[in-house]
Amino acid sequence: REQNLRGVAAVAGAAAAELYGLQILAEGIQTIKDNHTRFIALGRDPAPRREGPAKTMIVMATPHQPGALYRCLGVLAERGINLLKLESRPSRQRIWEYVFYLDFEGHRDDPPVRSALADLAQYTTFCKVLGSFPRRI
Predict the structure, then answer these.
(1) Which of 35, 43, 52, 61 is most buried, judging by how many CB atoms fall within 10 Å of its CB?
(2) Which one is catalytic: 31, 37, 124, 133?
(3) pLDDT tens per residue across span 24-71
(4) Active-site residue among 31, 39, 62, 124?
């Protein structure tokens, strides 16, 4: 948008078009009717906490050994934290290692979540909180 490029388009949510003053060329472009793409905005400073239920999103890597992911998920289970989403992607740094994206219930400032995040450090090779967001029920 800032460069006024011609013949260029982007796939994004309607809010992005409104924010940047862009024209929506097509809606409902997914090939599977109930497919939804999730867009998130990341920043260096945490967003202020909102009222209501929250979810936290993290990215983590585990050692390539039996039970590594199991132990990480156990950290959440022991605290009664409900897992909402789990995705894996191959690591770009090491062959046969994976990076996991997790969404779970609770805000990173909630005592059970804070405790779980601290304990995950002993079972992961990398763990980063991407953010805590309002949870749509």
Answers:
(1) 61
(2) 37
(3) 999 888 777 777 677 677 778 877 888 899 999 999 999 889 999 999
(4) 39
pTM for the predicted model, two decimal places: 0.73
Q: How many helices (H) and strands (E) does the chain have?
A: 3, 4
Q: What is the CATH number of domain 54-134?
A: 3.30.70.260
Active-site residue, 37 included: yes
Domain spans, the chain? 54-134
Residue 126 known to be catalytic: no
Query: CA 1 → CA 7, 12, 41, 100, distances in Å?
Result: 12, 13, 17, 33
